[in-house]
């Protein structure tokens, strides 16, 4: 009884706060550049390293660029990279996962051998290696993180496909004379949607974090284009003179991750009751 | 049991081989000719040809791989392009710094997060539980490098309590080593406690529903005895696996912490090598960290049956 009383509001609260934060992020990604008070690259040298003021609400960075405007453009960068990478990993992961789980046999064994080997790299390590080869660029990040997270999607899809393909309704579809591909698309894949939605949300958070870490290390979004990670990286030498430069981008990343994590928790509780605790 | 150990170890070998292939192949994708990069200004066609021959780069690719793998197995990771030093000793030296920080941090995080998770599970849906979940979700959402920067800002710069850059080995001076390691370790403990606490809580709740726990309670055992003697043993196993994963992945993620606190660890070595295009070091670091990751997870898996004997059966 107590559990139900507490659980329901918590679930709703998680979803509500998470959804609101995600909504703000999407809004900023779409309209941030139109709303930003300044061009994120415009220099205002007299204002450099000055704190919040009427002209620059959140202060100005080491070149006098408006921090608020850079954060708003940074939201677009983070959201866009996370969204593209998520799609990349989902697309590749679904194809490989379905192929492995549905065809089984040697196809499954070979695919899984490579998949497990890729999983044997910590995600950021693999991404770092790929970035080392391709150099820092937006496309590079999407490819690097996409490849790093695809194996996770493959695991989830393969597992779901394996368990679904033995069920009666799949058998029935085959008996009715439907082709393997039709059966797969019509009856097997829809069962992967719920776990994939939860995974995609969780991964969105991982990617935002990984992208900001790469950019912080100087291997992500190349400056002067603003991203929350590279803003932290360029602000680091000025931590003594202008600590606010470090505070805001980190707050943006943390709030985004908090929102995505809460949304992920709520989605999991809602879509996958077995995982509910 | 022996069978379990052998199969699990045998499974790690193909993984390691493919890890090696991936690292080798990745470095073949480096744009431009590696010899030209290495020689820099001295890259005349004759020099390039001579160097290619010396390094065996004129051989077919599969043969190059076999030679390279043979060297790696014998501990020869090649030479740094920039400094000419042997790569492996360099990596090992830097790795010891990172490993110290990671091991201390993960041990502390476990000591804090596991009891917290169990407490949360025991008081499920009460205030304590919500507090533990909320705290761990918040710390789960803070990037480690930002948390590190904030600690540095407050305790290093504003209060001046702790040194802000550098590292002192424990063998050299225990006291100052402790001072230097405090902030990086605290950062990792705060960030990594979140997932461990959540995992412990989830698996404890799962276990606490089982009949044997009800039976233990019915016998009249005290709540602490029920939780620690009976629930803990079964609930800890999944957390143990997670700890292994964290331990391994931290060796890759430590690069950002080492950047924040200017620590000469393996992460920093790799990042600097990437900027300097010192590919033998990049390759060596990737291979080494992936190897450690696989080995750590293997050890974690091998210890698992001690926690949950059903696995080896």
Question: If you had to describe this structure to a student in words, what would you say it looks like?
Answer:
The complex is a heterodimer of chains A (277) and B (313). Chain A contains 10 helices and no strands. Chain A is mainly α and 277 residues long. In chain A, helix 6 packs antiparallel against helix 7 and helix 8 packs antiparallel against helix 10. Chain A starts with a helix and ends in a 6-residue tail after the last helix. With 313 residues, chain B is an all-alpha fold. Helices cover 77% and strands 0% of the residues of chain B. Chain B has helices spanning 2-28, 34-39, 45-55, 61-73, 87-122, 127-140, 144-158, 174-208, 211-218, 223-260, 266-275, 279-307. Classes of the chains: A mainly alpha (277), B mainly alpha (313).
- Count of strand segments of chain A: 0
Radius of gyration of chain A: 22 Å
Instruction: List SSEs of chain B in N-to-C order.
Output: HHHHHHHHHHHH
Largest sheet of chain B: none
Counted by DSSP, the helix tally of chain B is: 12
Largest interface: A-B, 50 and 55 residues
Using the alpha-carbon principal axes, give the shape of chain B: globular
Uncertain spans of chain A: 1-6
The overall pLDDT average of chain A reads 84
Total beta strand runs of chain B: 0
The number of helical segments of chain A is: 10
Helix content of chain B: over 70%
Helix content of chain A: over 70%
Reading the helices and strands of chain A in chain order gives HHHHHHHHHH
| Ends distance of chain B | 7 Å
